[in-house]
Specification:
One of its GO terms (molecular function) is D-lyxose ketol-isomerase activity. By secondary structure, this protein is an alpha+beta fold. Helices cover about 15% and strands about 35% of the residues.
Length: about 230
């Protein structure tokens, strides 16, 4: 994925988010050189992997297979294991119309996925079988705004703006926008995108970036490579 395309998506996504009245935190707009200059001061941002995250899942087809994310806050896995401290995370995301976020599950993370505005958010859902794979026959039950819903294996759950679903660890899910791009909120337990995503297909979590121009803002996947200590 070319950096120039990433920069375009950042600007488009920021404008889309702002159109719903959502205000991003100040660190969203730090330039790369400012982040480098303030590297030690910003250790909490870098270590929690807060910030921009644009992925094509390593497949080079962002418009068809991809997701726009921004991690606003995030605790530490150590706190979650200990059961005290900052045990939660929050993201704001954009799923474009008919853009697939592919089938995956989490081992640890429980999450509320919230349609914050735009089109419908459609999720395809499976429960896990004994080996952890999607069960092609078993029904899957989820909570939608406090109400239990049961769907057949691979059933489609459609969320209008304002509606949400709670996905517990082990629930397989893929999702996309229908009718228009969708602004998505995510509230969850501590988020670990390095180790807590299990994909049905052998794909990657992050995009491979081709540096054809300087970055407008760093992605979380840039921190280790581009921010020197």
């Amino acid at each position: 994925m070319k950096r120039s395309r990433v920069n375009e998506i950042l600007q488009e996504g920021d404008a889309f988010i702002r159109s719903f009245g959502y205000v991003m935190p100040p660190f969203a707009y730090f330039a790369p050189d400012e982040m480098q200059r303030r590297r030690h001061e910003l250790a909490g941002i870098v270590e929690a992997r807060l910030g921009w995250d644009i992925t094509d899942y390593g497949q080079g087809r962002f418009d068809e297979l991809g997701l726009f994310l921004f991690t606003v806050r995030n605790g530490r896995a150590e706190d979650l294991t200990r059961g005290s401290g900052m045990l939660y995370a929050e993201k704001i995301m954009i799923s474009r119309q008919e853009q697939l976020s592919p089938m995956h599950r989490h081992v640890v993370k429980a999450e509320d996925i919230i349609n914050r505005g735009g089109g419908k958010l459609v999720l395809e859902l499976f429960t896990s079988d004994a080996s952890g794979d999607p069960d092609p026959e078993a029904e899957v039950s989820v909570m939608t705004d406090g109400i239990s819903r049961t769907l057949p294996a691979g059933g489609l759950l459609s969320l209008d703006p304002g509606e949400s679903v709670t996905l517990l660890p082990g629930v397989w899910h893929a999702f996309w926008g229908e009718g228009a791009d969708v602004l998505i909120g995510e509230v969850s337990t501590v988020n670990d995108d390095l180790t807590d995503n299990v994909f049905r297909e052998p794909i990657g979590r992050f995009a491979a970036i081709e540096e054809d121009e300087p970055p407008l803002h760093l992605l979380v996947s840039d921190y280790e490579r581009l921010l020197t200590r």
